[in-house]
Amino acid sequence: MATYDLVVIGTGPGGYVCAIRAAQLGMKVAVVEKNATLGGTCLNVGCMPSKALLHASEMFEEAGHSFAKMGVSVPAPKLDLPSMMNFKQQGIDGNVKGVEFLMKKNKIDVLNGKGKILGTGKVQVTGQGGASQMVETKNIVIATGSDVAQLKGIEIDEKRVVSSTGALSLEKVPSKLLVVGAGVIGLELGSVWRRLGTQVTVVEFLDRILPGMDGEIAKQFQRILEKQGFAFKLGAKVTGVNTSAAKLAATIEPAAGGSPETIEADVVLIAIGRVPYTEGLGLQEAGVILDNRGRVQIDHHFATNVPGVYAIGDVVAGPMLAHKAEDEGVAVAEILAGQAGHVNYDVIPGVVYTTPEVSSVGKTEEELKQAGAAYTVGKFPFTANGRSKVNQTTDGFVKILADAKTDRVLGVHIIGREAGEMIHEAAVLMEFGGSAEDLARTCHAHPTRSEAIKEAALAVGKRAIHM
Ligand SMILES: Cc1cc2nc3c(=O)[nH]c(=O)nc-3n(C[C@H](O)[C@H](O)[C@H](O)COP(=O)(O)OP(=O)(O)OC[C@H]3O[C@@H](n4cnc5c(N)ncnc54)[C@H](O)[C@@H]3O)c2cc1C
To answer: Is the CB–ligand 1 distance for residue 47 below 6 Å?
Structure first.
């Protein structure tokens, strides 16, 4: 029987990063993966394919709508969807191969099959054909991720009623797409198909889009998306989808109750969130406790209640984000090596990769209000940023929330082009407990969009220069 210091179940960003860090620290490591390819949701059906399609569809839209005004005259672009899907697949393959290479480079054994925990130190791995092998290990890390949340009474066939996975592989551009859920995934994939010619309607149970993100940013984002052609039905729920005719008929009811209406669509995308995935892991038999939302319960050191069994990533509490999973992977490996692995959950950036992008780190204004915190706000619009003006990409603004007494930055929220790249200077500043004054006195290269961050920091002290 093979024996290891660490067996990681699942090779998403949490699992494979954990395995690499543990190997760097001298452990003998194996990963177990039930899918044919490594990389988990993120690389195969999540972050990476969605970003490939977002990029390609954005280029398609730019070529059709923005080139002419810059004096670049090209014929109207034609969509070749199979080639676009091929572009996406090449990106997936490249990244998946990269993880395979990293496993080899770090001498990590890859065990293909479904992992089941048989108690402390024992994992059974059952391959596709049913043959199983047993491995012994000092420690186990559960990194089995998440799966699509289903809507009661609506069956996902991944052809016409799709989850994000189906929406990343549609064979033709639907005329009408109904997106259920105005969260990050629904809005990103809605954007892809809208750019390619689809009429997109988004139904959201709450009275706002992007639940959890700063309300002011979300409001402006909604206005921008509406200008782009999105239609929103907020405070409404989809209660059924009739699939018997050529067109789907979705029944929509006001969330507060009232008479239903029907909306026709070619494709319905269910994007109401994701749920932890623990199926077949043997957690009940092994005695691993789950919380009331089905997530593996862990302490501050990622340890479950069963000695030697740890868990990270989407399968535990916290934001379901790849970089959160990665950082937890590093932290748990370091803890197992006797080091002080740690994740600062107050500084985890979140990005919506639409055009414009939305990014955020730290507290929202709503959270500060609810906590009764005294804070100051500094804002700066991209309409007043020179670089944005010359590029004619002036949608959006930067918003900085700082402690009213100490000036320490508590939250930064950006809507605008490249917001996903810009957020990191705020994250670094916050990791060091920096103030708005620190940000305002840091020299920023000109002309950059990042100067809007400096100006927003100046605005916290009511001394923005260009406004
Ligand atoms: C469409 C979409 C877009 C997204 N975009 C982003 C984004 O832009 N940025 C971002 O940060 N996050 C994004 N996410 C979320 C991100 O994908 C997840 O947060 C991340 O993948 C979680 O990593 P993980 O390692 O916890 O689990 P996963 O990536 O879900 O990996 C879990 C792995 O475990 C395997 N597994 C499960 N059970 C077993 C078992 N018993 N035995 C063996 N193997 C098993 C699975 O096959 C899978 O490979 C997106 C998600 C989706 C769906």
So the answer is: yes
